[in-house]
Amino acid sequence: MALHWHLLIRIVLAGGLSLLATLAYALYQSHSLAERNAAEVADGVARQLESQLLLIEAGLGRGGSFPDFELWKQAGGQAGSCLAYLPETGGTPRSLCYGGKPTARNWPSGFETAYRSLFQPGLPVSRSIRRQDAQFGVLTFAASAETEIAAAWQNVRDLATLSAVTLAAVCALVYWSVRRALRPAQTIVRGLTTLAAGDLAHRLPGFQLDEWRRIGIAVNALAESQQQLLQQRRKLAAKLIQLQEDERRYLARELHDEFGQCLAGINAVASSVRFGAAEQAPELAAEAEQINEIAGGMLLQLRGLLQRLRPAELEQLGLAASLHSAVADWNRRDAGKTQYRLHVAGDCRRLTDRQALALFRIAQECQTNIAKHAAAANVTLALQIDERRALLQVEDDGVARELPFAGGGLGLLGMRERVAALNGELSLAIVEPHGLRVAVSLPLAPEPEAQ
């Protein structure tokens, strides 16, 4: 959920709870007001009746007219309210109601049920009528419950309407303000996504709010650090690869100059012994022939090892010729179990020596992995060189149905290091219905413009 929606929902919930508390307080106040009004009316009428008793005792009033509710009636009151007088001893009870109960019920029945259960509206209020410290009678005033409920509903409705409008206005203002304040968060998320995709040169802009500005500075500092670490790693990887190639070159030279010459000498001596033994010691001719064959086999193995350590065609004839030679050798060694095909498009002379060597080594490593694990019948190598990049794709129809390695083995790690050292990209994909595709893309320097 977006942060601004999360905050808005919290504000609405808090506003709703505040509204409920306010409505509850308004209902309580409305009922308290109704009780005070009823008590004031009862007290006022009680004083009027006591005044009437004093006048009767003074001979200024008529006893037959007591109690006289005419003043209360003329003063007006709530519709449906009633007065009742009960004499203490003897006399006739009297009662009087003002108007009738409200007929228009504009409040919900549920509200009336809840209000009656909470406050018991219209509860009668009684006052004692006393004369000379003796109780003369009891006055009871009962306000209209319907009138009290109508007044409470009116207050609640007005307050709820005002609160709802206020809450809606506050939510709209908060939503606009929070969305505006959180707008830099979208920029930060896009920037982090770009950095996660590998573009460590991307930087976040400066922000006005202090919090966002500090986040932007921290993210930019982290990206700068990661970029420097990546550059150092690429330099280290390039240096290690160069050291590896130098070591391979040294081993190839030593094997060729020392071990190869020794094998050639053994082969020559064995041939001489074989020809001499044919006349003087025929029984040694077979052993000399075996020595000759063993030395010849070792020479063949040595040539293959030298080809892997330091392909002569790569330095003398270029990448295309080296790949064609390697593919021919792979087809010959696999004896038809796996068919290798090569397609080269573009000018390989645009590649630097490091790029050409890296592509050749990656092709060798792919062939080694296919021979060990893929059980493939067909392998296609495609090298395409255009103005901007060199793309090598090695695709097989082996047994792979899912990418089997998260980090990869040493062979894949070596390929990644070679590609990373040259600022390239390496990707793996499954070929339908099964098989693996390895794609390597290396950026090329633009050709110099013709003068």
TrEMBL record:
<dbReference type="InterPro" id="IPR011712">
    <property type="entry name" value="Sig_transdc_His_kin_sub3_dim/P"/>
</dbReference>
<keyword id="KW-0418">Kinase</keyword>
<dbReference type="InterPro" id="IPR050482">
    <property type="entry name" value="Sensor_HK_TwoCompSys"/>
</dbReference>
<dbReference type="InterPro" id="IPR003660">
    <property type="entry name" value="HAMP_dom"/>
</dbReference>
<feature type="transmembrane region" description="Helical">
    <location>
        <begin position="6"/>
        <end position="28"/>
    </location>
</feature>
<protein>
    <submittedName>
        <fullName>Histidine kinase</fullName>
    </submittedName>
</protein>
<keyword id="KW-0472">Membrane</keyword>
<dbReference type="InterPro" id="IPR036890">
    <property type="entry name" value="HATPase_C_sf"/>
</dbReference>
<keyword id="KW-0902">Two-component regulatory system</keyword>
<keyword id="KW-0808">Transferase</keyword>
<feature type="domain" description="HAMP">
    <location>
        <begin position="179"/>
        <end position="231"/>
    </location>
</feature>
<dbReference type="InterPro" id="IPR003594">
    <property type="entry name" value="HATPase_dom"/>
</dbReference>
<keyword id="KW-0812">Transmembrane</keyword>
<dbReference type="GO" id="GO:0016301">
    <property type="term" value="F:kinase activity"/>
</dbReference>
<dbReference type="Pfam" id="PF02518">
    <property type="entry name" value="HATPase_c"/>
</dbReference>
<dbReference type="Pfam" id="PF07730">
    <property type="entry name" value="HisKA_3"/>
</dbReference>
<keyword id="KW-1133">Transmembrane helix</keyword>
<keyword id="KW-0597">Phosphoprotein</keyword>
